[in-house]
From TrEMBL:
<dbReference type="InterPro" id="IPR012338">
    <property type="entry name" value="Beta-lactam/transpept-like"/>
</dbReference>
<dbReference type="InterPro" id="IPR052907">
    <property type="entry name" value="Beta-lactamase/esterase"/>
</dbReference>
<dbReference type="InterPro" id="IPR001466">
    <property type="entry name" value="Beta-lactam-related"/>
</dbReference>
<dbReference type="Pfam" id="PF00144">
    <property type="entry name" value="Beta-lactamase"/>
</dbReference>
<feature type="domain" description="Beta-lactamase-related">
    <location>
        <begin position="28"/>
        <end position="375"/>
    </location>
</feature>
<protein>
    <submittedName>
        <fullName>Beta-lactamase family protein</fullName>
    </submittedName>
</protein>
Amino acid sequence: MNSIGVHGTAAPGFEAVREEFAAVVAGEDVRAGAQLAVYRHGHQVVDLWAGDAVAGGTLTGIYSSTKGAATLVVALLVQDGTLELDRPIARHWPEFAAVGKERISLRDVLTHRSGVIGVDGGLTVGELADDQVIARRLAGQRPYWRPGAVYGYGGFVTFAIVGEVVRRATGRSLQEHFEQRVRAPHGLDLYLGLPEALEDRYREVLPGLAGPEERAAFWAAVPGPHSITGIGYGLNSTPPLDQVAFLNTRQVRALGQASAGGVGNARGLARMYSAAVFGLDGRAPLLEPGTLGEFAMPHSVGRDLVRGEQGQYALGFEAKGLRYPFLGANAFGHSGSAGSESYADPRSGIAFGYTRRRFSFDWSYPEHDRLAAAVHRAATAA
């Protein structure tokens, strides 16, 4: 095992988390950089980083961990009474009713049951950068299955629907709500729209490491571009979506599309979940108990048509209590395809954020299990 310098702090009782993080970043895939931040009951207990040109405040692409930030905005608007989860989307957005979508609700979209996971022919990177452009394309798209019958993940487009509902219901974008109600008041290093002035803190996402034979074997087993899985991951466009290049594109970072366009770091992710559930810096939690209970409750479980057994969802969030059985039943959060992980566990008081710069070539991140378990052991022993 090659050694690599680990920087930052771990509170008394969390020393084993630092040791586990050091073991993780010694792996070849992670040496390019990683960050881990943990809050417990609103107080930071872990703040670690390692890797080339990576510090605690370095920013990188968080991909679908963005969905957690976007869902928090929706939860606040539901809590306010501004949005209704079971109201048909077409009542806000009449054009969305086309080709069999007139009954689809916000709850259907947030639980990945709408069937609207992409568009025939795919979307270019330029189109995928802009939620409003995506929304216009989705308005005319027939669902890929009968809404409500099954569920399947729409990796890059689902929250464009959510964002359009927010914009039409409030007159402001989802990104503006996040900035004004969540990011700025809590000082989060987490952006749905990265200001150009902060570009010098961004470090590009790097491709996964694999030999030609290993890579060829992986892609030979990937479903075709026009399959349900291919559509859900944007592989049906010409050329197929390059996920690594996606957030390395300035336009994507600038607009901060709500499905996968977020930029941040481990501190930002952990602070967001702490602010949502436990409070932060003397502020009350953003979510009231009833709202938290609704959004943390598992909604779609079984087999995801796009992601298979990996897809287990609460309302907008991933159901982390099912992903990590040692957590409480209603733990919730969201991972990202470049290797980020983030969640809150109301039972143990944990708010967890992890990022890494390098993709895994096969989109698997076993260090998530190791780090989550180490944090949970430390928190419950304290």
